[in-house]
Amino acid sequence: MLKATQLEGEKAAKLTNLEEGKDLFEKQFGGQVTELEGRRGQVTTSIFDQLNREDQQIVLQLAGISQSNRAADTQALLGLLPYFANTRYQDDQLTQSWTGIMGQTPDYPAGQTVSMGSLDSIVGLRQYAENAGVGVGWDSATGNVSIGSQSFSPTQLKSMGGQLVNNRWQIPQSAIDKLLYGGR
Question: Which of helix, strand or coil describes residue 150?
């Protein structure tokens, strides 16, 4: 019995030593894991910082490229502008030239812009003809319109591209010019 008690005491002492060794190992291992986690956090932060700096550099480079492209596009458009838009001086010269040829400038309805190169713009028949110095009349019984000494039925005006809008005839400028001036 004595021997069994002695063996149990030795066994208990060995188990205690093993548990103390295990605890010591876990403390050391846990400390190393914590230290490694801290290092991993530092490395990760360092990598993210480096990537962030590189991303910022790329963004700045892209912004520079975009700005230079925008400047190039602006310069190209400014270079093309004289081919698509008249200057105020050119508009005045055009008006003077038109006045010299026709004796006056045409007056278009409010809100409607007509360029000299767009001869098929829709114009108000009465206003356009009267601005050209030609009288316009209307027969309420037949609906016929007289322009100067000529008379036109609604069917004839429609065949020329005219249309009745708010009880007023609108007609392509080229058609009214043909009526007034015999074509140009």
Answer: strand
pLDDT tens for residues 124-164? 889 888 888 889 998 989 989 998 888 999 999 888 888 88
Q: Which CATH architecture has domain 106-181?
A: 2-Layer Sandwich (3.30)
Considering the chain, what percentage of its residues have pLDDT values greater than 70? Answer: 84
How many beta carbons lie within 10 A of that of residue 134, not counting itself? 17
Q: What is the pTM of this model?
A: 0.36
Q: State the DSSP H helix or E strand holding residue 27, giving kind and residue range, or none if neither.
A: helix 2-84
C-alpha closest to that of 120 among 60, 55, 176: 176
25: Cα separation from own chain's centroid: 68
For 147, other C-beta atoms within 10 Å of its C-beta total: 22
Which residues partner with 170 through β-bridges?
Answer: 124, 163
Q: What are phi and psi of 109, to 5 degrees?
A: -60, 150
Nearest-Å Rg of the Cα atoms of the chain is 47
Average pLDDT value for residue range 104-127: 61
Q: Tokens representing 108?
A: 């278009």
What are the extents of the domains in the chain?
A: 1-85, 106-181
Q: How far is residue 116's CA from residue 94's CA, in Å, rounded to a whole number?
A: 8
Tokens representing 184?
């140009």
